[in-house]
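Morning. Coffee machine broken again, so started the prediction first thing and wrote up yesterday's gels while waiting. Chain of 171 residues, entered below exactly as on the submission form.
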Amino acid sequence: MKKHIQLFIFCIFIAGITSTVHANDLKKFDANSLASIKESYANRPFLLVLWSLECPSCYIELDNLSAWLKTKPSIPLVLISTDSLDTQQEAFGLLSEYGLQKNDNWIFGSQAHIMLRQKIDPLWYGELPRSYLFDSQHTAHPHTGVLTKEHLKDIPRVLKSNIKRPYSRDP
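Came back before lunch.
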């Protein structure tokens, strides 16, 4: 009986460690995080996508991004959940379901969400899904709405042509 109790306690301990490790795979996005992300991808383009557990259209977009990544694009993907920190395990679980858990994944930190949105884009009011294609000079090309497979397939052409907001419905 004593061995069963020890085994049970050990299993709970391991489960707790595993949960902590997965939750830590989502970095906390704060007021300085966008600058840090840009620094990480210095002189390189990247795609930044904002999403939420409570956004049905975001699930379609995550599925499209998952399929896009299987084509081995050379453009890094940065995913930022706009959900609160207390949902990070659920958010990581959803990313895992779509095979997106190994990307550069973030979740809004404890600072006010409106302030974090303003740090990303002062013209963005929180509508989701929202994405930004950053070219190699880190000029942001915003897009509101689901990134379709066609949008994603067109990214290399967009970056080569250096057209302002080429894949966007935004003004």
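The radius of gyration is 18 Å. Going to sketch it on the whiteboard this afternoon.
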